[in-house]
Structure formats: structure tokens, C-alpha cells
Amino acid sequence: MRCAVLGDPIGHSLSPVLHNAAYAELGLDWVYEAVQVPAGGLAEFLGHLGDDVRGFSLTMPLKREVMGLAHDVSPRALLAGAANTLVIEDGLMLADNTDLPGIGAALRERYDGPVTRPVLLGAGATAASAGLALVDLGAEVVTVLARSAARAEETRRAIARHPSHPEVVVADLDTTDVVGDVLVSSVPAEAQTAEMVARCGGVAVVFEVVYDPWPTALASSVLDGPGDQVLVGGLDLLVHQAVLQVELFTGQPGPLDAMREAGELALALRARR
User: Fold this and answer.
1) Which CATH number is 100-232 given?
2) Catalytic annotation, pick one of 19, 63, 64, 117
3) What does pTM read for this prediction?
């Protein structure tokens, strides 16, 4: 069987490393690759699939685009308004979202404290899943910091749809003080200014979803800091959401340890280049 991660850009993705390690550990003769599919091109791509395709991982900019193309959508993908997983069975496509539970699992692996007033840096599809995951963990007020309130509206609505009816506040990313207990950043590494990073020093937990390049400026501020902040990394999220994808694709639990080890090795090799 064949699987792949789709997105644009896609060359940096570690998903093939994680999934192929999982298939080897599970004794499956499956193949997983990375395929560049630009925004607006997903429908055409999905219209030319062979019978040996089992599923896809979806990254930017396709997580919201896929929602109108699937035959069925899981409740958590509907809630988030985005999907990062497409499972194909008998010619039908199911869209699901493993980012949402993956974020919660990655956070709880590193931090068991309260989550009440989280702050999100960035307002894309990953931020929406992060906000919902944090509400699942007890958050009552979620602050979304974005450069455009209009672009953040879809994420604001997604988080507000949670059955717990959290309060969702949208504010300016470039000027607002970062005040909360858990910070989740999906801001690209190249957009992380020194001024932005400096405003993030007061939170107990920094969850940096970017894993390449690593460490980002934000992650470095925690690693090089006084040690009073917990750091959750992008590889943590990537592994936990991929474990759930493997189970959706294969019907077998994803081998967490083998996948994490493969990801850590791949990142270490990249760092030496």
C-alpha cells in the first residue's frame, strides 16, 4: 500500500521518516512519500489515485481545502474546520484531524499542570486545533494573537464552537503582551522576531509546533533561559499526531518509540549539514 504527505512546501517534512519507520516496525511492506501539492491543486490530485493508495497526511496549505473534498468528515475535523488526515477505503475518502488529540498528548507528556488561559501565536489551521485541544484540557479563555483579525476569524469561530463555549479573544501579534499559562506558537521560524520572542518569557509552558529548523528563536529562548519554562517541541506534536495516523491507515497502534527515535535521528543529521 502507498501513503504520502501532501503540501507546499513539502521537502522539509519528516513525516516520511516517521511513517516508514512505523511500517518497518509493524512488518508492513508499505511505502510513504512526500508529494508537493499547491493550494488549489488538491481536487485534481485526488482525482487521479490508484487502487493501492490508503491515505494521506495533509499539511499547509491543504488542511482546510480538503474539507470540501472528502466524502465524510470526522466530528473533530468538523469542529476544527480542518483536517490533516485523509483515509481512503473502497474509493471513499474520510477526513480526520489527528492534530487535535496529538497536541493534547504531546503537551501532557511534558506538562501535567493546569491549562486555564492559553495564548496562541498565529491563527492558521494548526492554531485552531491547538485552541480546541487546550479547551479540552480545561482552558476557559483562549487568546489568539494574529497579524490580521480578519484572517484569524475562521480560527476564532472554530475554537468558539467547542461544547464548553470558551471565550476567544483575538489581538495583535506584534504589539500585545503575552500573558497566560501555556503558549502555542505556529509562527514560522523566519517570522520570529527578537521582540516577539522577548514577550513570551512569562508563560510557564512554550509549545513550539515548528520542528525544522530546530531550535527556532522561540525554542532557543527556553533552552538557553533560566530553566523555569517547559518546552514542548514540534517533533513531539509530529510524532503524536503521526502515531494516530498510522493507526487510522493500518488498523494497528503506531509504534511511538520507534517513530520518535527515527525523527530525532533525522533532525540530528539535518543539524550537521
Assistant:
1) 3.40.50.720
2) 63
3) 0.95
